[in-house]
Amino acid sequence: MPTQSEQLRRHIVADINAGEPGGKLGSERELAERYRTSRSSLRQVLAALEESGLVHRVIGRAGGIFISHPQVQRSLSDVVGVPSFLASQGYAAGTRVLSTKITGPDRTTQQALHLTADDFVIEIQRVRLADGSPISLETAEFPAEAFPGLLEKQLGGSIYQILETEYGLVTSRAEERIEAVNATPDEAALLGVKPQAALLLINRITYDQNGTPCEFSRDLFRGDRTRLAVTVQGRGIGVQPAVDTASVALQS
Protein backbone atom coordinates (compact mmCIF):
# COMPACT_ATOMS: atom_id res chain seq x y z
CA MET A 1 0.00 0.00 0.00
CA PRO A 2 1.58 3.31 -1.08
CA THR A 3 2.13 5.94 1.59
CA GLN A 4 0.20 9.22 1.45
CA SER A 5 3.35 10.96 0.24
CA GLU A 6 3.80 8.42 -2.58
CA GLN A 7 0.12 8.70 -3.56
CA LEU A 8 0.48 12.47 -3.70
CA ARG A 9 3.62 12.16 -5.83
CA ARG A 10 1.82 9.82 -8.26
CA HIS A 11 -1.11 12.23 -8.63
CA ILE A 12 1.19 15.16 -9.36
CA VAL A 13 3.32 13.12 -11.81
CA ALA A 14 0.15 12.03 -13.64
CA ASP A 15 -0.82 15.69 -14.06
CA ILE A 16 2.72 16.50 -15.22
CA ASN A 17 2.58 13.77 -17.85
CA ALA A 18 -0.81 15.00 -19.04
CA GLY A 19 0.47 18.56 -19.38
CA GLU A 20 2.87 20.35 -21.70
CA PRO A 21 6.43 21.50 -20.95
CA GLY A 22 6.24 25.03 -19.58
CA GLY A 23 2.62 24.62 -18.54
CA LYS A 24 1.55 25.85 -15.12
CA LEU A 25 0.31 23.30 -12.60
CA GLY A 26 -0.89 25.99 -10.24
CA SER A 27 0.13 27.88 -7.14
CA GLU A 28 1.08 26.09 -3.95
CA ARG A 29 -2.27 27.00 -2.41
CA GLU A 30 -4.20 25.80 -5.47
CA LEU A 31 -2.32 22.51 -5.55
CA ALA A 32 -2.87 21.88 -1.84
CA GLU A 33 -6.60 22.34 -2.35
CA ARG A 34 -6.69 20.24 -5.53
CA TYR A 35 -4.89 17.29 -3.95
CA ARG A 36 -6.52 17.76 -0.54
CA THR A 37 -3.26 17.81 1.34
CA SER A 38 -1.38 20.11 3.67
CA ARG A 39 1.02 22.64 2.21
CA SER A 40 3.88 21.16 4.27
CA SER A 41 3.31 17.70 2.75
CA LEU A 42 2.95 19.26 -0.69
CA ARG A 43 6.23 21.17 -0.32
CA GLN A 44 8.13 17.97 0.49
CA VAL A 45 6.86 16.21 -2.63
CA LEU A 46 7.38 19.27 -4.84
CA ALA A 47 10.95 19.62 -3.55
CA ALA A 48 11.72 16.04 -4.63
CA LEU A 49 10.09 16.59 -8.04
CA GLU A 50 11.99 19.84 -8.47
CA GLU A 51 15.27 18.10 -7.61
CA SER A 52 14.46 15.45 -10.26
CA GLY A 53 13.83 18.24 -12.77
CA LEU A 54 10.15 17.50 -13.36
CA VAL A 55 8.91 20.88 -12.12
CA HIS A 56 10.30 24.31 -11.35
CA ARG A 57 9.06 27.23 -9.26
CA VAL A 58 8.59 30.78 -10.44
CA ILE A 59 8.35 33.52 -7.82
CA GLY A 60 6.11 36.56 -8.21
CA ARG A 61 2.51 37.49 -9.01
CA ALA A 62 2.52 35.34 -12.16
CA GLY A 63 4.52 32.62 -10.45
CA GLY A 64 3.67 29.10 -9.37
CA ILE A 65 4.69 25.53 -10.10
CA PHE A 66 5.53 24.85 -13.76
CA ILE A 67 6.17 21.63 -15.72
CA SER A 68 9.76 21.08 -16.81
CA HIS A 69 9.75 17.65 -18.55
CA PRO A 70 13.56 17.31 -18.48
CA GLN A 71 15.52 15.16 -20.87
CA VAL A 72 16.64 11.67 -19.88
CA GLN A 73 20.34 11.13 -20.48
CA ARG A 74 21.43 7.86 -22.08
CA SER A 75 25.13 7.08 -21.94
CA LEU A 76 26.79 5.51 -24.98
CA SER A 77 29.73 4.36 -22.87
CA ASP A 78 27.95 1.65 -20.83
CA VAL A 79 25.91 -1.46 -21.62
CA VAL A 80 23.03 -1.05 -19.16
CA GLY A 81 19.30 -1.57 -19.33
CA VAL A 82 16.79 1.26 -19.37
CA PRO A 83 15.67 0.74 -15.72
CA SER A 84 19.26 1.17 -14.52
CA PHE A 85 19.98 4.48 -16.20
CA LEU A 86 16.52 5.84 -15.34
CA ALA A 87 16.96 4.92 -11.67
CA SER A 88 20.43 6.52 -11.62
CA GLN A 89 18.80 9.82 -12.64
CA GLY A 90 16.04 9.66 -10.04
CA TYR A 91 13.18 8.41 -12.22
CA ALA A 92 10.73 5.66 -11.37
CA ALA A 93 11.16 3.18 -14.23
CA GLY A 94 8.16 1.33 -15.62
CA THR A 95 7.40 -1.05 -18.47
CA ARG A 96 4.43 -2.02 -20.62
CA VAL A 97 4.97 -5.34 -22.38
CA LEU A 98 3.21 -5.03 -25.75
CA SER A 99 3.88 -8.42 -27.32
CA THR A 100 6.05 -11.53 -27.07
CA LYS A 101 6.52 -14.31 -29.58
CA ILE A 102 8.85 -16.92 -31.05
CA THR A 103 9.36 -16.34 -34.75
CA GLY A 104 11.75 -16.80 -37.63
CA PRO A 105 14.49 -14.17 -38.04
CA ASP A 106 14.58 -11.87 -41.05
CA ARG A 107 17.83 -11.43 -42.96
CA THR A 108 19.00 -8.47 -40.88
CA THR A 109 18.47 -10.40 -37.66
CA GLN A 110 20.15 -13.50 -39.09
CA GLN A 111 23.23 -11.47 -39.89
CA ALA A 112 23.27 -9.68 -36.54
CA LEU A 113 22.86 -12.83 -34.41
CA HIS A 114 24.77 -15.23 -36.70
CA LEU A 115 21.67 -17.35 -37.31
CA THR A 116 20.22 -19.21 -40.29
CA ALA A 117 16.76 -19.05 -41.82
CA ASP A 118 15.93 -22.32 -40.01
CA ASP A 119 16.62 -20.85 -36.56
CA PHE A 120 14.13 -19.07 -34.29
CA VAL A 121 14.28 -15.91 -32.20
CA ILE A 122 12.38 -14.67 -29.16
CA GLU A 123 10.91 -11.25 -29.92
CA ILE A 124 9.84 -8.93 -27.08
CA GLN A 125 8.29 -5.50 -27.68
CA ARG A 126 7.95 -3.11 -24.76
CA VAL A 127 7.28 0.55 -23.97
CA ARG A 128 9.60 1.99 -21.32
CA LEU A 129 8.26 4.61 -18.90
CA ALA A 130 9.97 7.33 -16.86
CA ASP A 131 7.77 8.39 -13.95
CA GLY A 132 4.81 6.95 -15.82
CA SER A 133 5.52 8.79 -19.09
CA PRO A 134 6.55 6.85 -22.25
CA ILE A 135 10.22 7.40 -23.04
CA SER A 136 11.09 4.62 -25.50
CA LEU A 137 9.67 1.82 -27.64
CA GLU A 138 11.94 -1.20 -27.87
CA THR A 139 11.84 -4.38 -29.94
CA ALA A 140 14.46 -6.91 -28.84
CA GLU A 141 15.28 -10.29 -30.36
CA PHE A 142 17.22 -13.15 -28.74
CA PRO A 143 18.32 -16.56 -30.09
CA ALA A 144 15.54 -18.90 -28.97
CA GLU A 145 17.83 -21.93 -28.63
CA ALA A 146 20.14 -20.08 -26.23
CA PHE A 147 17.39 -18.92 -23.86
CA PRO A 148 14.73 -21.61 -23.39
CA GLY A 149 11.86 -20.50 -21.18
CA LEU A 150 12.69 -16.79 -21.43
CA LEU A 151 9.09 -15.87 -22.22
CA GLU A 152 7.99 -17.49 -18.97
CA LYS A 153 10.03 -14.97 -16.94
CA GLN A 154 8.87 -11.61 -15.59
CA LEU A 155 9.70 -9.28 -18.47
CA GLY A 156 8.74 -5.97 -16.87
CA GLY A 157 12.25 -5.23 -15.60
CA SER A 158 15.77 -5.68 -16.93
CA ILE A 159 16.16 -8.58 -19.35
CA TYR A 160 19.94 -8.26 -18.95
CA GLN A 161 19.48 -9.12 -15.27
CA ILE A 162 17.38 -12.17 -16.20
CA LEU A 163 20.03 -13.32 -18.68
CA GLU A 164 22.73 -12.99 -16.04
CA THR A 165 20.93 -14.61 -13.09
CA GLU A 166 19.00 -17.30 -14.98
CA TYR A 167 21.33 -18.14 -17.87
CA GLY A 168 24.79 -17.12 -16.62
CA LEU A 169 25.25 -14.60 -19.42
CA VAL A 170 27.17 -11.37 -18.89
CA THR A 171 26.96 -8.59 -21.49
CA SER A 172 30.49 -7.60 -22.46
CA ARG A 173 30.01 -5.02 -25.22
CA ALA A 174 27.49 -3.61 -27.67
CA GLU A 175 27.62 -2.16 -31.16
CA GLU A 176 25.10 0.65 -31.67
CA ARG A 177 24.02 2.61 -34.73
CA ILE A 178 22.07 5.82 -34.11
CA GLU A 179 19.76 7.61 -36.54
CA ALA A 180 17.26 10.46 -36.37
CA VAL A 181 13.86 9.28 -37.65
CA ASN A 182 10.24 10.42 -37.62
CA ALA A 183 7.49 8.68 -35.69
CA THR A 184 4.94 6.64 -37.61
CA PRO A 185 1.31 7.01 -36.49
CA ASP A 186 1.51 3.74 -34.51
CA GLU A 187 4.82 4.67 -32.87
CA ALA A 188 3.49 8.14 -32.05
CA ALA A 189 0.42 6.70 -30.33
CA LEU A 190 2.55 4.39 -28.17
CA LEU A 191 5.05 7.10 -27.22
CA GLY A 192 2.53 9.89 -26.64
CA VAL A 193 3.89 12.19 -29.35
CA LYS A 194 2.54 13.56 -32.62
CA PRO A 195 3.04 11.64 -35.90
CA GLN A 196 6.29 12.64 -37.60
CA ALA A 197 7.75 13.77 -34.26
CA ALA A 198 11.53 13.41 -33.98
CA LEU A 199 12.78 10.10 -32.54
CA LEU A 200 16.23 8.65 -31.93
CA LEU A 201 16.56 5.15 -33.39
CA ILE A 202 19.27 2.99 -31.80
CA ASN A 203 19.99 -0.37 -33.45
CA ARG A 204 22.06 -2.49 -31.07
CA ILE A 205 23.89 -5.82 -31.22
CA THR A 206 24.89 -7.00 -27.75
CA TYR A 207 27.63 -9.59 -27.15
CA ASP A 208 28.13 -11.95 -24.21
CA GLN A 209 31.35 -12.69 -22.31
CA ASN A 210 32.40 -15.14 -25.04
CA GLY A 211 31.98 -12.62 -27.85
CA THR A 212 28.79 -14.28 -29.12
CA PRO A 213 25.93 -11.97 -30.21
CA CYS A 214 23.03 -12.49 -27.80
CA GLU A 215 20.64 -9.62 -28.57
CA PHE A 216 19.57 -7.58 -31.57
CA SER A 217 17.33 -4.65 -30.69
CA ARG A 218 15.68 -1.62 -32.21
CA ASP A 219 15.02 1.13 -29.66
CA LEU A 220 13.08 4.30 -30.44
CA PHE A 221 13.61 7.12 -27.92
CA ARG A 222 11.54 10.29 -27.83
CA GLY A 223 13.66 13.08 -29.27
CA ASP A 224 12.14 15.69 -26.97
CA ARG A 225 12.95 13.70 -23.83
CA THR A 226 16.34 12.16 -24.61
CA ARG A 227 19.92 13.29 -24.96
CA LEU A 228 22.95 11.10 -25.64
CA ALA A 229 26.23 11.27 -23.77
CA VAL A 230 29.59 9.65 -24.47
CA THR A 231 32.99 9.87 -22.78
CA VAL A 232 36.03 9.66 -25.07
CA GLN A 233 39.76 9.84 -24.38
CA GLY A 234 42.27 11.99 -26.20
CA ARG A 235 45.37 10.04 -27.29
CA GLY A 236 47.36 12.65 -29.13
CA ILE A 237 48.00 13.19 -32.82
CA GLY A 238 49.24 10.15 -34.72
CA VAL A 239 48.22 7.61 -32.08
CA GLN A 240 46.01 4.79 -33.38
CA PRO A 241 42.65 4.64 -31.57
CA ALA A 242 41.60 1.56 -29.65
CA VAL A 243 38.73 -0.63 -30.80
CA ASP A 244 36.22 0.77 -28.31
CA THR A 245 35.53 4.08 -30.06
CA ALA A 246 32.38 6.03 -30.76
CA SER A 247 31.69 7.48 -34.19
CA VAL A 248 29.03 9.46 -36.03
CA ALA A 249 28.25 8.68 -39.66
CA LEU A 250 26.17 10.77 -42.07
CA GLN A 251 23.34 8.88 -43.76
CA SER A 252 23.42 9.02 -47.55
Automatic annotation (TrEMBL):
InterPro entries with a match to the protein in the record: Bact_HTH_transcr_reg (IPR050679), Chorismate_lyase_/UTRA_dom_sf (IPR028978), Tscrpt_reg_HTH_GntR (IPR000524), UTRA (IPR011663), WH-like_DNA-bd_sf (IPR036388), WH_DNA-bd_sf (IPR036390)
Keyword annotations of the record: DNA-binding, Transcription, Transcription regulation
GO molecular function terms noted in the UniProt entry: DNA binding; DNA-binding transcription factor activity
Claim: DNA-binding is one of the keywords in the record: yes
Source superkingdom: Bacteria
Pfam families on file: GntR (PF00392), UTRA (PF07702)
Any Gene Ontology biological process: negative regulation of DNA-templated transcription
Keyword Chloroplast found: no
PROSITE patterns in UniProt: HTH_GNTR (PS50949)
CDD domains, A to Z: WHTH_GntR
Sequence ranges assigned to domain HTH gntR-type in this UniProt record: 1-70
Protein name in UniProt: GntR family transcriptional regulator
